[in-house]
């Protein structure tokens, strides 16, 4: 094989149970050198357990773990290299800095094998990378949350680990700081080409940080791929809804398409006569001016029932105003400056390509179901 990227971490078919709880179920993933990979999923789906198994903080029960193509744990053989011999860097949510050591001595922690001169040089180098060189003699308690996060990152990067493992590294920071710090962190990781596996429950964070995402549900990976691919081509309603609340409709495939209140939607790959679920994201429905629209699909009148202001966008709750679906309520995300008035009539259009169509699940057969979720707090995070 030519032009092959260097494999930093491989997890092969790993499983883990705590008593009766199957926390990780036959999971495989890999991280290549220079990649930032996010393990994403709801709370309790097994993300942290995967990270702990990769680090060696948890004894591997089943499967294999390799770093730089060297086996470091094998469940079948009961063999497991301890964390300090694996060449992993760790950053946890609480940063876990040593309170009684200065910033420089915190960073020096993993550098015992270097002589004094090389150690000092490396400390300065990584503190430069995270823009904290002026704080070398400070103690952690004197630093802000964001600064502590950078020191935790510097300490983890200092020994040049084969893989950096981050467990919800930004969730202890307030929302505004978090955006800045994760941007800074991403730059540091990319510049140093550090292979990174990061755990997060925040889909926006994963899409921002990751080259590839592994989305987990109940201990398993349900989809992996680039943020763009997972967001735009979800393999299931669970994946689609993990990123945004959706408007949920239903229909029957006739001649390769399905009728919906927002027009005819192509349904390639679905059998003739099949019952399907149609998931439409609030951002996929557009407001059009009278006489406007791009002519590609039906324009539907609706009444504005609620308006939620979210800063750079608004979330509208609208009720269709004509046709047999006139009672249908939809959530619409509107990015324009103009704020439609409550009770006013607006015109909606959906790009048919933005509708997400899945086979109907066995339960639930209402022709047109209401939106799947309550209005989410889209302003959070
Ligand atoms: P996540 O990081 O996605 O929130 P975890 O890996 O922490 O998920 O947990 C996965 C499942 O394993 C959960 O049901 C959790 O309650 C359980 N679990 C995690 N750690 C332990 C433990 N030390 N002992 C018992 N159960 C645990």
Please characterize this protein's 3D structure.
The protein is globular and about 80 Å long. The chain has helices at residues 47-55, 103-108, 116-129, 145-157, 175-191, 203-209, 227-232, 237-243, and strands at 7-18, 21-32, 36-40, 62-67, 70-74, 79-80, 88-91, 163-167, 196-200, 212-217, 220-225, 247-254, 257-260, 263-266, 275-280, 285-288, 299-309, 314-320, 329-334, 345-350, 356-359. The chain is an alpha+beta fold. Mean pLDDT is 90; it is low at 363-381. Adenosine-5'-diphosphate binds next to β2 and α1. The site of adenosine-5'-diphosphate has 11 residues, from β2 and α1.
Main structural class? alpha+beta
Largest sheet: 6 strands, mixed
Name the average pLDDT.
Answer: 90
Helix content: 10-25%
- H/I helix tally: 8
What is the CA–CA distance across the termini? 43 Å
SSE succession? EEEHEEEEHHHEHEHEEHHEEEEEEEEEE
Unreliable spans are 363-381
Strands of the widest sheet, in order across it, are 7-8-9-3-10-11
Count of DSSP strands: 21
Shape verdict: globular
Quaternary arrangement of the chains shown? single chain
Bound molecules: adenosine-5'-diphosphate
Rg, please?
A: 25 Å
Strand content: 25-35%
Quick recap of the structure?
The chain is an alpha+beta fold. It has helices at 47-55, 103-108, 116-129, 145-157, 175-191, 203-209, 227-232, 237-243, and strands spanning 7-18, 21-32, 36-40, 62-67, 70-74, 79-80, 88-91, 163-167, 196-200, 212-217, 220-225, 247-254, 257-260, 263-266, 275-280, 285-288, 299-309, 314-320, 329-334, 345-350, 356-359.
